[in-house]
């Protein structure tokens, strides 16, 4: 019998690598345990992503104006996670400024190769897939006269990003491999577009760095597949706690399941839902 491939996104793999208890709550428990309240920084990030997806992926060139962006953010805004209405409105304005600044020099006729594009590829043991914020197709830098792809990921957290962040991101490397497979174009370039500073942290992969990321992904997938197999044998609560132990760390302050996890709360008390707007949130490789 052929072995069934383990199906995963980068987020799923990284959740398993970071904390097996969180993985159990997120992907295995049914019904899924209730999450904590919404985070304001996720509201900001979600709306910014939605607007940029509309701008590059759905709107015709004639609609791509600053007024349309302002209106889209105003009508699509949500108050989830903010301290109060005043803070929500302040961040609506700040988000609008961020997006307008980012788009200031963009060509309204520019058509990316993909927007919120799902890509995937299989290895001998895993089926890995994910959704890319934007895939650009640009003139190839090797002088061949052809084109190449660039993987673009929008970031809205406070911490400025570096080329090392782009190079070491498992998700971005898997997107490169998925884009090559699905779109059948050369691709080495990964870019983190950091809207709060309007900067781009870019890196180029080579075959060795992609192979390293793929090996890491496969190793995590193998362990997760074994853990899921164990889960399906039917575990008592004590056995489940042993098989999926907590990994307390500073990240616990931002965990959606912290209220179910005394070990995590002891290490890092849960933050206010709006705290990341003021403090740098941890690096989340999603
Ligand atoms: S609070 Fe921390 S240890 Fe507990 S489930 Fe969340 S990430 Fe894991």
From TrEMBL:
<dbReference type="InterPro" id="IPR011604">
    <property type="entry name" value="PDDEXK-like_dom_sf"/>
</dbReference>
<keyword id="KW-0540">Nuclease</keyword>
<keyword id="KW-0547">Nucleotide-binding</keyword>
<dbReference type="InterPro" id="IPR038726">
    <property type="entry name" value="PDDEXK_AddAB-type"/>
</dbReference>
<dbReference type="Pfam" id="PF12705">
    <property type="entry name" value="PDDEXK_1"/>
</dbReference>
<keyword id="KW-0347">Helicase</keyword>
<keyword id="KW-0378">Hydrolase</keyword>
<dbReference type="GO" id="GO:0004386">
    <property type="term" value="F:helicase activity"/>
</dbReference>
<keyword id="KW-0227">DNA damage</keyword>
<keyword id="KW-0067">ATP-binding</keyword>
<keyword id="KW-0234">DNA repair</keyword>
<protein>
    <submittedName>
        <fullName>PD-(D/E)XK nuclease family protein</fullName>
    </submittedName>
</protein>
<dbReference type="GO" id="GO:0004527">
    <property type="term" value="F:exonuclease activity"/>
</dbReference>
<keyword id="KW-0269">Exonuclease</keyword>
<feature type="domain" description="PD-(D/E)XK endonuclease-like">
    <location>
        <begin position="9"/>
        <end position="262"/>
    </location>
</feature>
<dbReference type="GO" id="GO:0006281">
    <property type="term" value="P:DNA repair"/>
</dbReference>
